[in-house]
Amino acid sequence: MKPTILTSLLLAAGLACASTSTAFAGTTLVRDVRVFDGRSAHEHRSVLVRDGAIADADYRGKVPADARIVDGKGRTLLPGLIDAHVHTWQHFELPLVFGVTTQVDMFTGVEVMQRIKKQMNEGRNGGEADVFSAGTLVTAPGGHGTEYPVKIPTLENGGDAQAFVDARIAEGSHFIKVVMEDGFGDHHFKSLDRATVKAVIDAAHKRGKLAVVHISNLENARAALEAGADGLAHLFVAAQMSQEEADSLAKLAQAKGAFVVPTFSVLESIAGIKPRDLLDDPQVAGLLDREERGALQTGYGPTPRPGILAAPKMVTSALRRAGVPLLAGTDAGNAGTQYGASLHHELAALVDAGLTPREALVAATSAPAKAFRLGQRGQIAKGYKADLVLVEGNPLQDIGATRRIVEVWKDGESTTALREAQRKHVAQENAAKATQPLALPANGRISLLKEGKLASPFGTGWFPSTDKFAGGVSTVNLDAQAAREGGARIAIEAQVKPGFAYPWAGAAFMPGTQPMLGADLSAAKVLRFRVRGDGHPVMLTMASSGMTIPRSVPFETGAEWKEVAIPFSAFAGVDPTAVTMIGFNAGPQPGDYRFEIADVRLADR
């Protein structure tokens, strides 16, 4: 929901991920198991799977001679889980590890969408979840979606809506994603107006396609539904909302026949709430490596603001009472979320918001399959895809049981090898001898001048840093000279220009042996430096492996040199053992900036 800066540069890069070809799926009999069929539960059933499909959801015959028998006693068999809101651009295998066999993608690169779609059509994506994608979203020039480092077409007015929608369908979009987003905090977007949104929705419907709308406040939620949206891709955060407003929105959604994807996982990230239930669960954490855990640990909100979750909880409860279909979606790909794993947190969040465990399971199986017209999936019924998840215990009583996965099947083929490979990878990473922190230079200084050029005692070194890689137009000039106190004095002349939601320009130090590779700087506790400048406030930024947006701490500049000391602890969520970048940046306010930094040191106190 909220834009990312660093890792979003990969969003539409057409990442190549070698998928495991779907092996010929034989016959499997899951015997004497509790079955949640996508709608309701049945005790002591046996489910027969043959050649990638469910042959019998209540098998009572003799055990087939060629069948592999799986004991279901004390366990529950679920349809493969469906995450109804993701952004698919990395970790393509990870959803299957956590039993998510289908993802509904709300915006990714066209190359990624087409690659996955082709492999699905050819039956060659056994090692990945199926993905049904909107491809390129529909947004205004300068609107939400344009801040990512990929050029996308934008829509000027409703008169061009049909041609725009037709172009997305030609690219392979399964449905149409529309953006009504005015911005948040100090960051503002241009948004499609109501007339244009309605024109896009009508254009999608003319071609038999669903139109789902991204909103971020009550006013736009109502406007999207009134325009005929088939669903809302999000709810929204707000500390105050009346019960009357929540009930009125639910009544409108019900009257319009719309569905809603609350996406608590990303809303909690915005609220600064970490998914401790995942991070502290060995069965989940044991399947996530450092980078993957890092994404969960570093949400958008630097400090907890649980009060702003009052609105989505109230609206979700009202939607449930009104009978509006609720779908489980995480917005995975954003800070504070992780593919596959976050859906289990989302289920718990839905229960916390008032759904029963059964209703939450419906929201992650049959409901999204029906809402997004995904065909024969999301249920355990004869002829349906044999995408299945076997868990210990009874998630209809304890929704947390969905995390106790015994086995996952995709098209009738077990993914145990994939899960075990991931478990082994994480175990090896955890068991490896802890890396020794990088030895700090005797004087701690990381800003050096060597042969007249800016240098460093370790790492990849210093680089100009601007928003250009993300489609911005800011510029910067760096000039390094010898500093009186030793090392280098770096003069930074930055021109921060509009054109990106978070414009910046400055200098970045990368401590890893490769750009954006993490380095263990845990021997340092404080970053010290001297600064002078034109009086404009600037930012010290820091990021670590797995982070989707760096943390920033502002500091002042003035005409006279002064020393600044900022502790690592000020950068909430940054892992000091895996620091990827330290930056000195001007922005986000547009303008010309000039400041100098010198004697940049990593200090142990």
Protein architecture, described:
With about 600 residues, this protein is of the alpha+beta class. Among the domains are: about 5-25 and about 80-135 and about 235-375, TIM Barrel (Alpha-Beta Barrel); about 450-605, Sandwich (Jelly Rolls). Helices cover about 25% and strands about 25% of the residues. It is built from 15 helices and 29 strands. Strands 1, 2, 3, 4, 5, 15, 16 and 17 form an eight-stranded mixed beta sheet that branches. The protein has a five-stranded antiparallel beta sheet with strand order 20-23-28-25-26, with no helix packed on it. Strands 21-22-29-24-27 form a five-stranded antiparallel beta sheet, with no helix packed on it. It is globular and about 85 Å long.
Shape estimate = globular
Give me the Rg, rounded.
Answer: 25 Å
**Distance between the ends:** 38 Å
Quick one: CATH class of the domain at 7-24 and 81-136 and 233-376? Answer: Alpha Beta
Q: Please name the CATH topology of the domain at 7-24 and 81-136 and 233-376.
A: TIM Barrel
- Major sheet summary line: 8 strands, mixed
Query: Spans with pLDDT under 50 lasting ≥5 residues?
Result: 1-24
User: Helical residue percent?
Assistant: 10-25%
Extended strand count: 29
Going by CATH, the architecture of the domain at 7-24 and 81-136 and 233-376 would be Alpha-Beta Barrel
Rounded mean pLDDT is: 92
Label the structural class. alpha+beta
Number of helices: 15
What portion of residues belong to β-strands? 25-35%
